[in-house]
Amino acid sequence: MTPKAAVELVPARTKDQLRFITCGSVDDGKSTLIGRLLHDSKIIYEDQLTALAHDSARHGTNGNDVDFALLVDGLEAEREQGITIDVAHRFFTTPRRSFMVLDTPGHEQYTRNMATGASNAQLAIILVDARKGVLVQTKRHSFICSLLGIRNIVLAVNKIDLIKYKKEIFDRIVEDYIAFSASLRFTSIVPIPISARYGDNVASRSGNFEWYDGPCVLDYLESIDIQSNAVIQPFRFPVQWVNRPNLDFRGYAGSVVTGSISAGDEVVVATSGQTTRIKRIVTHDGDLVRAEAGDAITISLEDEIDIGRGALLARPTERPQVSGQFAAHLIWMDEAPLVAGRNYILRIGTQTVAASVTAIKHRIDVNTREHLVAKTLGLNEIGFCHISTALPMAFDPYEINRETGSFIVIDRYTNRTIGAGMIAYPLRRPTNIAWHPLSVSRNERAALKNQKACIIWFTGLSGSGKSTIANIVDQKLFTMAYHTMLLDGDNVRHGLSADLGFSEPDRAENIRRVGEVAKLMVDSGLIVICSFVSPYIAQRDMVRNLVAKEEFLEIFVDTSIDECARRDPKGLYSKARSGEIKNVTGIDAPYEIPLRPEIHLRTTGQTPEQLAEAVVEVLIARAIVDNY
């Protein structure tokens, strides 16, 4: 099988590759432009053209003409609706250059897909419908391109045939776009009038433009000089896995993401600061003297030092930042909103760590680029946040190194990617703030009280009986001469959290404050009994992670919503169902059932006294308190 027209195809690996993205508002012609580029580059086979003609008759939107968008829109839903949903990757080559093109969706609800494509691109083709001009989604996509480090823009004013090739309309659109993008950090903006449907100025110059003497799209893509600076950047090698085929060899496998390294060069493990030298650079085809960006290698070191998956190797003279706190732009990609204080999984390269957003400094209006006050981020929203990780991470600011400055946010329970971020800078603690060493430890304080300090955390719906059971447990331990403190959800709302409401962000902040107070009490040697609805797993886990594993007991007071509503001691459920109050857990706010509680109390058929006795028995079995 041969392409429709004979053309000299140079193997892609012998030429540099340009990665570019097409974006813009819906129906601006992104998929059609790519389909036309593929067709006019003479790389479409006869059977593909036959299938395209058949699909155009079935799904096409161009009447009897071939619909080139169908070359890219592969999903059945895309063809039926005439839109792009997923990010489509296509590869093609010409005698001058090879290309990877990413066609991204124009609908606002698929902005996250567009951002994914832009993160891998060196250039963006922003399409604008000549009839409509610069739209909101045009601005949104342009802003995201700028945020993700794309500096070269082709402004393709499409469907120029539908405005009869009028120069004044083209000039006005270009003027509007340049005025809008003046504050964006683009190095070059090249406006080109095109008709993707008919091929005007796509792969060759069109005779329909007496007033235009610039390049066609393909000529520009072939000639633009986008030098990859990956090789000249500082050396960065994220360890993918430890290669130990036998007792005589230990190597660290991965890919060089930037820079270069040679055998004998000194390297440092970024987070630990341990230094050593490269002994060998091993590949499937034999040892290398030198490796550079893009090479997949295994590194053998002169010294036996502690290195595992996620470690980042660098030159001692070109170290990355290492911090457990940093500021970053964050694109949120999940239906459930981002909430400060929740625990997520964060992945930078091969490094994976528990993390939380400690503050949302502002949300960015992508249309005006105005900074807005926000407590949460919704789907497709962009914010500037402070992030804290459980362990120090090695990274570079995104503007310096896109490979080591970007990260994804993962839901720790579903393992779905729910956010993507670009690190701006590390957050340094003030130099005058440090941990002050204490002469008396928490264990010594607890031993003086003849007990083990811990947090006993009761969780359940309002009306489940958790406060009643917690109070009886407190009384029993007091009678046994143990030192306890009971923190109840209603009581802390009168003081510690008097300024908070019941929205999800306020609930998260309430539990954060209570957790910190409970930790201080554990440090003083107390048994801290906490009774809070605490509806979210992440909030409860946040408190769990403040203390040692054996110092936290989660008690799920399991009572059905119907039984809680029947009791309704505070009148919450009746008011919620009448619409008088909002954000009542179990009615119009969710309750996430504990997955593996230390104690599961099923209240049906049991009295509060019996349930409290069961809790005390567990405390005795765990040697937190002695038998009585």
UniProtKB/TrEMBL annotation:
Asked whether the UniProt record includes Ligase among its keywords, one would answer no
Which enzyme type, at the first EC level?
Answer: transferase
One Gene Ontology BP term is: hydrogen sulfide biosynthetic process
Question: Active site: which residues?
Answer: S534 (phosphoserine intermediate)
What keywords tag this UniProt record? Answer: ATP-binding, GTP-binding, Kinase, Multifunctional enzyme, Nodulation, Nucleotide-binding, Nucleotidyltransferase, Phosphoprotein, Transferase
Provide the residue positions that the database annotates as binding GTP: 24-31, 103-107, 158-161
Q: What is this protein called?
A: Multifunctional fusion protein
Q: Which organism is it from?
A: Bradyrhizobium macuxiense
Name the gene.
Answer: cysN
